[in-house]
Amino acid sequence: MGATSVRKRQALEALEARITTCRLCPRLVEWRERVAREKRAAFAGEEYWGRPVPGFGDPDARVLVLGLAPAAHGGNRTGRIFTGDRSGDWLFASMHRTGFANQPESHSLDDGLRLQGAFIAAAVRCAPPANKPLPSERDNCLPYAAEELELLEPAVIVCLGLFAWDAACRLLGVRPRPRFGHAVEFRVEQGPVLLGCYHPSQQNTFTGKLTEAMTDAVFARARELAYGSSTDSPSRR
To answer: By residue range, what is the domain housing residue 73?
Structure first.
């Protein structure tokens, strides 16, 4: 790992420490901690994370994957975004097929998952009631993503759903906001390309609105935009 990568990793670790101790939003603090106490029956024997969930991945990533927020019994339980829930199963399987992840599944912090060329974060870092953050909660949290953007300087931001698309536009000062759609691209002047993807929620994957082929196509395009034929591109699986 080069000196630049080491500095990025150290800065990301310092940011992670601030994120995981954040208590700015009383409603979200109450909800995430109540879920961690009451638990789902299937996970009754587990200790829930119950705190804000930081981003994770390759500090040299040229692709940033931006989601909505941790799932109450996914990231809020495991401590890693998209880890331990159906949306994550779908996402990491696609990222593995397209060469961004070393394995197709993620169940816990110590399961060996590594990302190559990609970094994953969420617009809101605490699990929200009904998966619907308030505008004020989004605005409290976006500065964390802004710091990640500044550190990573990604070439592409894959926005998982309309909420993430809107958040990315706010972060980058894009006005008027371009229309969101699956596989829609918008190049920010002197900035990254926004690449839309339907969120891998069960509502979309169970109904066929989002298929494996559609998801893979987005990540293949993200690779092309970010790396082209560069030898720095993470290897395909």
So the answer is: 3-227
Domain total in the chain? 1
pLDDT, mean of each 10-residue run, the chain (237 residues) = 83 97 98 98 97 97 98 98 97 98 96 98 98 97 97 98 98 97 97 98 97 98 89 55
The Cα–Cα gap between 54 and 15 comes to: 8
Q: Tell me, yes or no, whether 236 lies in a domain.
A: no
From residue 193, alpha-carbon distances to 109, 146, 201, 216 in Å are: 30, 16, 23, 17
pTM of the model: 0.95
Q: Residue 231: CB partners within 8 Å, gap ≥ 6? A: none
Structure tokens belonging to residue 202: 């069960």
